[in-house]
Every structure is written in structure tokens, then in C-alpha cells.
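Just curious: can you write a single protein's sequence together with how it folds?
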Amino acid sequence: MIDTHCHLTHAKFADDADAAIARALAAGVTACVTIGTGIDDAVRARDLASRHDGVVFATAGLDPFSSHAAGLAFDDAYQALAELLRAGGFVGVGEIGLDYHYDLDARSVQAERFERQLDLAAELDLPVVIHVREAHEDMAATLAAHARNRGVIHSFTGHPADAARYLELGWLLAFNGVVTFKNADDVRAAARLVPIDRILVETDSPYLAPHPKRGLRCEPAFVAHTLVALAETRGEDVAVLEAATTANARRLFRLDS
């Protein structure tokens, strides 16, 4: 199994990130992609990956929250991001995207900052990890206009129609503990639509722990529970889905290179 989206540099892992990685390995997880949100966090993600070479991989991006925090200094943050990515040590750009749920930047500002990072990812030939919340229509339109990009819609929580649009555009979809929640029928319906070569599993640790771990801090080892639930939802053998999601992750992030 590969946890394709976790935040091992989060403060909730300050005391036991190494132990959490060890528990993940013991649970059958072969690799984790830890997501750098903002420049300082991306540096920490890269450093953690270097200490766990071949097991932990890092991405870097200015998500809607770190973009908002940068304020008028966004151009400086973007230049720092570009320098980091060009220096190497990262397997993707992200998470980046659009978030209309919170009172962040104006939608036009979010779009401009997001598209600049899409262009950077295309220039560097790196996959993109997409954050999208309550913005699926605008996200799909933006990705359609940026056909050079490839990547994954992380923590997919949209409707089946949203999933179908992203699939038409060539993107992968990643599912986490939400697929185990009682009120997530639309997410499960979407999961059944995804071809087996376009699906990924993730935790989004330390958030969104799956059943039967609800209420606990989520960690990469818990991706095993999501994988089982996803296989049941799709009517597939767990081992078959495990092999497919692992192969998909290795291909998308070029983990073997």
C-alpha cells in the first residue's frame, strides 16, 4: 500500500513522525507521500523524506491557505517555491488548488495563484496534487484549460458527475477515510466509477481517520482500513486493489526513478 497524501510534518506528528512511519511499514505500507504546504513546511517534508529514503517522498506547493497567508508577499513565496522545486527532492507540486468553503482570497486571486503553479508544474514535468473544496465546476474548467498538467484530485469528496469530469480530463482520484463515513454515499458512488488504473488511496493524516479509527489522530498505517472499505465498495478483491493503487502511485509520482 502507498499512502499518497499525508502531512507527517504537521505539529500533531512533532513527537513521533518516525514512529508513525515505522507503524505504517509494519501495517504493510511501502511508501508515503508527505505533502508540503508552504515553503517552510515543504523544506521539512523534503528533509523528512531524505531521512527515510525510498519510503517517504515529498511534494511542495502553496495551497489556498498558505497562499492566503503569504498575502502581498505571494510573489516571493512563489519564487521560493520555484527554486525549491528546481533544486530537486520533490515528486510533485502540491497540494495546490481552489477552496471556496473558507473566507480566503477572492476567487480570481485564488485562480491566478493556482494557475501559476500549474504552469510551473508543467514546466518541470511534475505531477500535481489538487486540493478542491466546493469549487468543482471552476476546478474542472481550469484543468481543462491546462491540458499539459497531470496528477490527482486528492481527498475526493464530490459527486459522481464531478468524478466523471475529472476522469474525462485524464486525472486520477484519491480516496481516504471519508469513504468509510456513513453520510458519504455520493463519494462511494463516485469511487465505483473510477477505472482501476486511475484510483489511489490516502489518509490525509492527521485528519479524517477512517472507521474503525474515528476519533483518533489519523496516521499512514490507517490507509489499510480505507483500502478494505474501498475494495468492498467497488466489489473488488483487496489484494487486487492494493496492487493496482500501489502501481498507480508509483507510476504517477515516478517513485521508482
User: Anything to note?
Assistant: The first helix runs from residue 17 to 26. The mean pLDDT is 98. The chain has one domain: 2-253. Strands lie at 2-6, 31-37, 56-61, 92-99, 128-133, 151-153, 172-175, 199-201.
